[in-house]
Design a protein that fits this description.
It is a single chain. It is built from 12 helices and 21 strands. The protein is an alpha/beta fold and 462 residues long. The chain has 3 domains: 42 residues; 206 residues, Rossmann fold, CATH 3.40.50.300; 176 residues, Ribosomal Protein S5, domain 2 (2-Layer Sandwich), CATH 3.30.230. It is elongated and about 85 Å long. The N and C termini lie far apart (90 Å). Bound molecules: adenosine-5'-triphosphate (ATP), magnesium ion and zinc ion (ZN).
């Protein structure tokens, strides 16, 4: 059959991968502006008229009954880092495609290279360093104390070449740092473009899935924290890990946004040090280290990150407004939620802040999105307003409603247990939760069950 090559110009949204034959100012799919970029696509009609990542021929596919498919859950490779294993859902599943993304310099390459250090004892690893030279990777490996002959490296950025390399070398694990540096020569758009990123990922995933090789792919994020290039990447892979943290602070949090093989609530906490990332076994202790004692305007609450309780400090500062409009500034806590709690305080408890600036901060750069922290926010605000410190071993839990009621929280026993372990002895909890607590387990503790915020204020004055 005669082959005809056709070049088609089309416009692709760099955010979501939406394709359109003509340029558009606004993407109809994800509604972002100015994201349509021009790409040309070469199609070959005739016998070879297939996309690059499609299977070679139309042979009948293998059919198997669900029963006959083996699914041995026990086969998970341990990464040697418990925090990472936890986030992955207990280890790496053979054949899984895992996308690791995060801000520049957050430590994506570091965590993967450190993982190689342990894994290479049992598995052969192919490390694709498109981003850095092999020398740079070697220098980092030296700094992290990673060595071993089981780590194969390649600096190739040609996805088809890598496809062949994987088929030939048959590694047990592939790491690509980063997907934005790979390209397929027959696709004319530049590397990092939606089409390239998608096709390269697909190509590598095909070969890795068929040989049950786990594939780690590093992806960059753009200014607003989305995965640069296509959102489609998120749909393609099995697991999306997000590495985040404040660049000025040394700790980093690894979250899974999507996981086909585990829970997405789990987090891993690491600390960045000279010798690489260290696991933090006791994040609560770390977050509370160096907190001020006997100062008004701080209160401790407990969040649940997956199955793990995490103590955090809520700080509030209420100061006289020097300009006309009082300011409300909230860091790490939802702004509207803060405004709501301030209004509840005024209306239901008579604490007026109409001519006062209010600043809220969650210490350590943490972000709170659980309503269970409401009570701590309210207590911290009032503590600072009346300038009376809250007992430093007090933990407050509970959601505050519009009538000033304190509503029940989930996982109370676990949260209280964590705080008790760290020496907390006074607990202000929703009254409805109190009966779920076996108080004999906490012999040194005092419990206050409160049903509204006024009762909570009386409790902290005792
Ligand atoms: N000599 C060093 N001592 C201590 N920390 C270092 C040292 N060199 C690098 N780091 C830390 O490692 C971080 C860089 O980590 P890494 O290269 O893994 O990040 P990345 O997420 O892969 O970045 P990129 O997106 O640029 O590839 C730096 O931000 C720094 O905190
Ligand atoms: Mg890197
Ligand atoms: Zn779009």
């Amino acid at each position: 059959m005669a082959q005809k090559t056709k070049v088609k110009t089309l416009y692709v949204c760099s955010q979501c991968g939406y394709e359109s034959p003509k340029w558009l100012g606004k993407c109809p799919e994800c509604e972002s502006w100015n994201t349509m970029t021009e790409e040309s696509r070469v199609t070959v009609s005739g016998s070879a008229g297939r996309s690059i990542s499609a299977p070679p021929a139309a042979l009948p596919s293998e059919v198997r009954s669900l029963e006959a498919v083996s699914a041995d859950e026990s086969v998970r490779y341990k990464t040697g880092m418990r925090e990472l294993d936890r986030v992955l859902g207990g280890g790496i599943v053979p054949g899984a495609a895992i996308l690791v993304c995060g801000d520049p310099g957050i430590g994506k390459s570091t965590i993967l290279l450190q993982m190689c250090g342990t894994i290479q004892r049992d598995l052969r690893i192919l490390y694709v360093c498109g981003e850095e030279s092999m020398r740079q990777v070697k220098l980092r490996a030296n700094r992290l104390g990673v060595d071993g002959g089981n780590i194969l490296m390649t600096a190739s950025t040609d996805a088809e070449q890598l496809h062949e390399t994987i088929l030939q070398n048959k590694p047990d694990l592939v790491i690509v740092d980063s997907i934005q540096t790979l390209s397929i020569r027959s696709i004319s758009s530049s590397c990092g473009s939606v089409t390239q990123v998608r096709e390269c990922t697909q190509l590598l995933m095909n070969v890795c899935k068929s040989s049950e090789i786990p594939l780690f792919v590093v992806g960059h994020v753009n200014k607003d924290g989305g995965i640069a290039g296509p959102k489609v990447l998120e749909h393609m892979v099995d697991t999306v890990l997000y590495f985040e943290g404040d660049r000025n602070l040394s700790y980093r949090i690894l979250r899974s946004i999507k996981n086909r093989f585990g829970s997405t609530n789990e987090i891993g906490v690491f600390q960045m040090e000279e010798g690489g990332l260290h696991e933090v076994e006791n994040p609560s202790e770390m977050l509370l280290a160096g907190r001020p004692l006997d100062v008004s305007g701080t209160c401790i609450t407990c969040l649940m990150e997956g199955t793990r309780p995490l103590l955090v400090e809520v700080q509030a500062l209420v100061a006289k407004t020097s300009f006309g409009n009082p300011r409300r500034i909230s860091t790490g806590f939802d702004y509207n939620r803060a405004a709501l709690l301030i209004a509840v305080l005024e209306k239901r408890a008579g604490y007026f802040m109409g001519n006062l600036d209010v600043f809220l901060n969650i210490a350590g750069g943490m972000r709170i999105d659980e309503p269970v922290a409401d009570l701590a926010v309210v207590l911290a605000l009032v503590s600072n307003l009346v300038d009376r410190p809250i007992h430093s071993k007090l933990l407050a839990l509970g959601e505050v409603g519009l009538t000033g009621e304190v509503r029940s929280a989930s996982h109370v026993a676990q949260r209280v247990g964590e705080a008790y372990r760290l020496g907390f002895d006074t607990f202000v909890l929703p009254r409805s939760n109190l009966r779920h607590i076996d108080q004999s387990q906490f012999p040194q503790a005092t419990f206050y069950g409160v049903s509204n915020i006024s009762e909570a204020f009386r409790a902290i004055q005792k």
